[in-house]
Amino acid sequence: MSEQLPVSERSQLRRIPSRASYDRALAHAILDVGLICHVGFATGTDVFVIPMAYARQGDQLLLHGSVASRLAKSLAGGVRLSVCVTLMDGLVLARSVFEHSMNYRSVVCFGHATAITDPTFKAAALRDLTEHLIPGRWEDARQPNTREIQATTVLAMPLQEISIKTRAGPPEDLQKDMELPYWAGVLPLQLRTAAAIPDPALAAHTPLPSYVSDYARPGQRSRL
Predict the structure, then answer these.
(1) Has residue 8 been placed in a domain?
(2) What DSSP string runs through 66-113?
(3) Which of 91, 130, 190, 202 is most deeply buried (CB count within 10 A of its CB)?
(4) What is the reported pTM?
(5) How confident is the model at residue 2, as a pLDDT?
(6) Residue 51 burial class via C-beta count within 10 angstroms: exposed 0-12, middle 13-18, buried 19 and up
(7) What is the pLDDT of residue 48?
(8) Would 1 be classed as within a structural domain?
(9) 12, part of any domain
């Protein structure tokens, strides 16, 4: 059986609680598919939400940015934050406009982030960030040098306070609307790749890596 995450005042879902889950394995699976997270935090009188690349490393979430960025400075200083990752699986078309919906899987994490300063752990985190985006690339590109590592802030956020919300399946029309003459159902959505576009400056006859030609997120097909 999967481990159940603890439920806190912040992580408890109150709107349609039947769609909630606190299954750690499910949270990890959603995070492992996604590519972009949105990080929300407050500084003084301002509130920011910033899209970022991320990676999961065990039971922590990795975020990174320039050492000069407001986000890196704020979060490394212990500011509270929330991180959201959403996977869109389909548009749900009901017979009534009011019942239209979406099929999705989402994870919202709450907590604090701390900066990774140890050079070895920092390099390992950058590797995980790269491999999350495109597995196989870390060993097939020039890896960051000391100056580049020093210019990058890598933050780690424990995955302890999490809420998961999902929806799947057909529309949920009212019984009185079931005989209306409108099409109803689900239009599936999926992230796929098109043909890779080589750099115009690429040396002639440089082979296309298989991790590019066969690229797919976990559980998804690689090409349109």
Answers:
(1) no
(2) ETTSHHHHHHHTT-EEEEEEEEEEEEEE-SSGGG-EEEEEEEEEEEE-
(3) 130
(4) 0.89
(5) 61
(6) exposed
(7) 87
(8) no
(9) no
